[in-house]
Amino acid sequence: MNTQKQITLQTRIAERYARIVDNKDEFSRSINQSLKQSFRINSLKGDVEKVLENLRKYDNSISPADWYGNGFTTNLDNLGSSVEHFSGQIYIQELTSMMPALSIPDVNESKRIIDCCAAPGSKTTQLAEMMENKGEIIANDNKHSRLKALRGNLDRLGIINTTVTLRDFRSFPNTNADIYLVDAPCSSEGTIRKKNTIKRNLKEKDYDRFSKVQKGILNRACEMAEKGDQLIYSTCTFAPEENEHVVNSMLEEHSVKLKNINIKNLKMGKGIKNWKEEKFDSEIDKCRRVWPHHNDTGGFFIARIEKC
Amino acid sequence: MLVLLKKEKKEKLIEYCTERFGISEEIFEKYQLYEGSKNKIYLIKELLELKFTPESSGLCIFRFDKTPKPTTNFLQLFSAVIYKNILDIDEKNLINYCKGYDLRMHPSSNKIEPGFIAVRYNNIIVGCAHWDKITVRNQLPKSRRCKINYC
After folding, report:
1. What would the DSSP string read from start to end of B2-40?
2. Is the dihedral angle over the CA atoms B141, B142, B144, B145 positive or is it negative?
3. Residue A167's domain is classified under what CATH number?
């Protein structure tokens, strides 16, 4: 019964995006394969090479991603029960989830970053590590229940440059920052290669519901940003309603422009120019789509926006 | 609501860290120390002034009642600069420690003084315990207790 349900879900996604993916057969094959566990080494808690050496005693096939030296995959599925995880030397994280932080070209200790939808803290802790625990991060989430996981991860990884706030970002008071990260809640279709992560009976109206929330959050970040500030918008879904459509709305409503995203050795597709009846701004092709069959990852979408 | 830690309390805390764990006092020059509710001491890079009260800031490193009590998070973060009152444990004791059990062992080194100690496995400080010359009492918070399969 479960297998039947799963086939239906994969098939539905393969069919929905057949027109916009570069190789529909490869895409369809890829989303039917399970994903290896991936993790990041937290250099704030130990020497990367030393931690890696210890981890390879459990699995000597551990290897780095081609496009990120600090992102690794393992054939094990429970590194969460290792002493390295307990002591905060590693963080279990999807490879795609590591991409937004890498798409910001100048993360350093002089920056203030607001992670608008931060829980459980994957990107916040990655950014804090990239900033060497300096600079300032505001990690916000709108659900109290999710803050426990966020706080727990910040503590475990030894993060001290972060302030945790509890607000619906759509009503977040004006706060200056250099970088606004909007990793928005979404239909999560891109996590289909993981077990039991996405809603099995997604309906068309669900895309519009998510889209409305995403526009509200990104709109607030665009309002707050000042000239030259960067905004990173990301989702883990394939749905153009939650991706290009949302970014296109910002191009229409705010004085913003899209910037190129370059992550060395990572194969990425361009943002699509139209979907159903809607045509997007020609700039939209600067958005980046990560398709599962390109890098053997989940699916992801990233846009880098600069306030003008 | 966090308030800047009073000078005398700060000096007392740094003195404790230096004497108890051998942590150099220069380490603290890079940070600010704040006191929150329940006598908790927070290590913060920079306290932000926001238009509303945040849920938390920085890392809770001590509880300062009559005497300072270090947190597991503090000892783990400063693992590389802790030189004194360290208890090295083996794989079996690590598994028990992470489950929250007290350790049935006597520190072999007489350099370990009664009081809070840093528990170390394979050159990594994994957390805090209390040694009273009889028992190594586990100080791991319930939220951090877990089953270890790989060590």
Report:
1. -EEPPHHHHHHHHHHHHHHH---GGGGGGSEEEE-GGGE
2. positive
3. 3.40.50.150
Q: For A183-227, how does the pLDDT look when each residue is reduced to its tens digit (9 = 90+)?
A: 999 999 999 998 766 666 788 899 999 999 999 999 999 999 999
Nearest to B150 among A45, A83, A160 (CB): A83
Query: Residue A8 falls within a domain, yes or no?
Result: no
What are the residue ranges of helices labelled H in B22-121?
A: 72-77, 91-99
Q: Which of A301, A293, A298 is nearest to A21 (CA)?
A: A293
Q: In terms of CA atoms, which chain B residue is nearest residue A144? A: B55
Catalytic residue among A116, A186, A222, A236: A236
> Which 3 state secondary structure label does DSSP give A251?
helix
Class of domain B85-144 (CATH, top level): alpha beta
Q: In whole angstroms, what is the distance from residue A130 CA to residue B33 CA?
A: 23
- State whether A83 and B147 contact (CB < 8 Å): no
Query: What pTM did the predictor assign?
Result: 0.95
Reported as a single tens digit per residue, the pLDDT across A16-67 is: 999 999 999 999 999 999 999 999 999 999 999 999 999 999 999 999 999 9
Q: Delimit the CATH 3.10.450.720 region(s) of chain B.
A: 85-144
Q: Tokens at residue A139, please? A: 């990690």
Active site residue A236: yes
Cβ contact (<8 Å) for B148 and A46?
Answer: no
| pLDDT value at residue B110 | 65
Query: Is B46 within 8 Å of A161 when comparing Cβ atoms?
Result: yes
Percentages helix, strand, coil for chain A, rounded to the nearest 5? Answer: 40, 20, 40
Most A CBs within 10 A among B33, B43, B56, B71, hence the mutation to make, goes to B56
pLDDT in tens, A133-166: 999 999 999 999 999 999 999 999 999 999 999 9
What is the tally of structural domains in chain A? 1
Please give, rounded to a whole number of angstroms, the shortest distance from the CA of B108 to a CA of chain A: 23
End-to-end CA distance of chain B: 39
At position B49, the amino acid (one-letter code) is E
Q: Is there a contact between A101 and A130 (Cβ–Cβ < 8 Å)?
A: yes
Q: Is A21 helix (H, G, I), strand (E, B) or coil?
A: coil
Sheet holding A63-65, edge to edge: A63-65, A68-74, A37-41, A90-92
CB contact (8 A) between residue B126 and residue A87: yes
Type of residue at B80: A
- Point out the residue among B56, B76, B94 whose CB comes nearest to the CB of A151: B56
CA atoms of A240 and A217, how far apart (whole Å): 17
